[in-house]
Amino acid sequence: MLNNRQETMRQAAAFFTGEIDRLITKPVRLMEVCGTHTVAIFRAGIRQLLPPQVELVSGPGCPVCVTPNDYLDTAVAYSRLPDVIITTFGDMLRVPGSASSLAAEKAAGSDIRIVYSPLESLDIAAAHPEKKIIFLAVGFETTAPLAAATVLEAERRGLANFYVLSAHKLVPPALSALLADREVRVDGFLLPGNVSAMIGEQPYCFLAEKYHLPGVIAGFDPLDILQSVYMLARQIHASTAIVENQYRRIVRHEGNPAARQVLTQVYETVDAAWRGMGVIPASGLGVNDRYRRFNALAALPLQVEKASEQAACRCGEVLRGIIKPADCLLFGKACVPEHPVGSCMVSVEGTCAAWYKYGAGKWQV
Amino acid sequence: MCLAVPAKVIDIIDLLATVEVGGITRQISLMLLPDVTIGDFVLVHAGFAIQKVDQEEARRTTELLKELAGYAE
Ligand code: SF4
Ligand code: SF4
């Protein structure tokens, strides 16, 4: 027998799906921008719960997926230097660069260490004064303030051998670039809860003001997501377009001021290359001049060959929601999670990986 | 990569907090969330507290769900 809580949740889910069905009368495409949402949607079977006129598409929501080859090639080149220790989140290891990956370099003897927190890099730096420690600083606004705080902490501890190689990216400029792309068709956004915990609600207002598109900042429980789709459905039905916040238990209107402050203290916005999406103006963060000595690229310059991308991989279109992973000829054949060809198959939050794990496996007949 | 989990703050020394998640304790940094007190719930991402969990809002959500369950009958 279901306990009380489960029964309440089941009934609430029934309410949301019933209302979504009632409110949405013509086909709509809603995009979730966040890889954690993508995984939660698959894991809870939310696509199957929604009425057929509502299509959920995944956007450029996983920082690992959108990191281009030339960044990985640079990281690989650094890892080959004898006096360098690379620290990184585990997800980055298997992402293929032009000719190698960090996993391959590690197997070949490079000192590459997986950290849970960027702060662990500082203990490694303190323990190895003769080495240069380079943290691979990837991630959106959720993660970038952590790396910035780590730089400030390195300064406080007087560590002279700690550097970051920044590939941090910003979500709102990516949404702008998506919407400027004529191939992309979206009727509303499920906005990333954790990014929003840092930046707050305001940075998304252009969605409503410039594009007349509704957006809902969404939490990560199945009911959070269903409720958020319902909130979008209500707006679409009423032809309104505002930014709503479903995840109020975490996301404050103003975000996290301390996090925003360390970001502006350590970083400056730069143009950044996104895998499959090209260079998007002011969509990345680079270490600013004041903290230049922590910037790997500035402090430890090196030559890297021009990157080449895998021709057949269609990550770029997957990341823009233009094709589904199964439309890529490599999907599930040459490209599987055990040996990914493109980055979308690498991270567990990647769209192709999620489709492979939950989609193709279950729906293939 | 950006996974964040809620945890309960059980001790604070300067900008270091001891938090408990599912019976396991670990140390996290409060550099990005200095105004935390013991007993607060915080969202933890890669070794940092990034936001307080608003218990009042969480309670309201639970109540809303109960209410909706009534509608769905
Ligand atoms: S299936 Fe593999 S190669 Fe194709 S788009 Fe996805 S990650 Fe890229
Ligand atoms: S939480 Fe942030 S970094 Fe993680 S998948 Fe979502 S948007 Fe990307």
Q: What would the CATH topology of chain B be?
A: SH3 type barrels
| Main pleated-sheet profile of chain B | 5 strands, antiparallel
**Could you say which overall geometry of chain A the principal axes of the C-alpha atoms support?**
globular
Say what oligomer this is: heterodimer
Q: Report, as a whole number of angstroms, the end-to-end distance of chain B.
A: 39 Å
Low-confidence stretches of chain A: 361-365
The portion of residues forming beta strands of chain A comes to 15-25%
Average pLDDT confidence of chain A is: 92
CATH superfamily of the largest domain in chain A: HypD, alpha/beta domain 2
Assigned CATH architecture of the largest domain in chain A? 3-Layer(aba) Sandwich
Count the beta strands of chain B. Answer: 5
Tally of helical segments of chain B = 1
In the CATH scheme, the class of chain B would be Mainly Beta
Listing every helix as H and every strand as E from the N terminus to the C terminus, the arrangement of chain A reads HEHHEHEHEHEHEEHEHHEHEHEEHHH
- Per DSSP, the total helix count of chain A is 15
Would you count the extended β strands of chain A for me? Answer: 12
The appropriate CATH architecture of chain B is: Roll
Query: Major β-sheet of chain A, in short?
Result: 5 strands, parallel
